[in-house]
Amino acid sequence: MAECIFCGIIEGNIPAEKVYEDELVTAFKDIHAQAPVHILVIPNQHIPSIQQIGEGDSQLPGRFFSVINQLAQDYGLAERGYRIVNNCGEDGGQTVHHIHFHLLGARHLTWPPG
């Protein structure tokens, strides 16, 4: 989708500091970081939200969490902990309509975030 910022990042038309990429997902540093480590993990295919994941996308959830686990190890987050966030829909706070998971860590995270 031409108007989707995340599709533009995947296609290389919008610059981003990518930290992981394979045939299913891409991960890059969030430019509006809310923690010392703030990485977005997104599918390479444009899927607006969790609500649109279908049976044909069965590999995707496993790949998200596999990549998140590896990034948590790579960035030294696994031992002390980290937060994974997915916002779904308008009331869920989703502002970019392309599935994405936030991996946040490297500081004590409080709830509610702020």
TrEMBL record:
CDD domains associated with the record: PKCI_related (cd01276)
Lineage: superkingdom: Bacteria
Annotated motif Histidine triad motif, positions: 98-102
SUPFAM superfamilies attached to this UniProt entry: HIT-like
Domain called HIT: residue spans: 5-114
GO molecular-function terms, A-Z: catalytic activity
Pfam families reported for this sequence: HIT
Active site positions, chain numbering: H100 (tele-amp-histidine intermediate)
Full protein name: Histidine triad (HIT) family protein
Organism annotation: Marininema mesophilum
